[in-house]
Specification:
Chain lengths: ~110, ~110
């Protein structure tokens, strides 16, 4: 079992709709969870982080965490073509070691 | 505030050679982590430095090494390069050893021929 798992996609969503990205992790003791956005040919950009169970909202982005189910998700409301990218889920598994999922490629169709 | 900088941005080396990559963290950030990104393996953790000390290490051979200087700048060295070392090498900085948010630099694209 991979430590952090994401559906690789591609996930195709019409412009203006809600994009839902999911991630599961294996280490029940994990405390910190991150979502990075990576455009083709660029480095990952931190867009959301969440440490407590529940929802955290920042603009059009909402991160959801359920530690009991070992599940973290990212919702993007009012999706725009500029949201088309690969989204990486990362889990802090001790010290500064971030374990990344393989990423979900998201395409927003105008 | 300037972001994380990495030099060089692109590098082409031959098998058997060695290479040194450099990373300057965000001003005030004292922790630097290194990652390797390849299409097949994704993003994998190499090591993390704080206060000139390696605090954590990933599952990479000893050919991969690093160090951090007193000004928090970090270098990563790969000796005896192999074709499989071709990858994007990313440096990430964070405020302190236990700070959890990491910010990535633009990366160094290494090609080994």
């Amino acid at each position: 079992q991979k430590e952090v798992e994401q559906n690789s996609g591609p996930l195709s969503v019409p412009e203006g709709a809600i994009a839902s990205l999911n991630c599961t992790y294996s280490d029940r003791g994990s405390q910190s969870f991150f979502w990075y956005r990576q455009y083709s040919g660029k480095s990952p950009e931190l867009i959301m982080f969440i440490y407590s169970n529940g929802d955290k909202e920042d603009g059009r982005f909402t991160a959801q965490l359920n530690k009991a189910s070992q599940y973290v998700s990212l919702l993007i409301r009012d999706s725009q073509p500029s949201d088309s990218a690969t989204y990486l889920c990362a889990v802090n598994m001790g010290a500064q070691k971030l374990v990344f999922g393989q990423g979900t490629r998201l395409t927003i169709n105008p | 505030k300037a972001g994380v900088t990495q030099t060089p941005r692109y590098l082409i080396k031959t098998r058997g050679q060695q290479v040194t990559l450099s990373c300057s963290p965000i001003s005030g950030h004292r922790s630097v982590s290194w990652y390797q990104q390849t299409p097949g393996q994704g993003l994998q953790f190499l090591f993390e430095y704080f206060s000139e000390t390696q605090r954590n290490k990933g599952n990479f051979p000893g050919r991969f090494s690093g160090r951090q200087f007193s000004n928090s700048r970090s270098e990563m060295n790969v000796s005896t390069l192999e074709l499989g070392d071709s990858a994007l090498y990313l440096c990430a900085s964070s405020l302190a050893a236990r700070a959890r948010e990491q910010y990535f630099g633009p990366g160094t694209r290494l090609t080994v021929t």
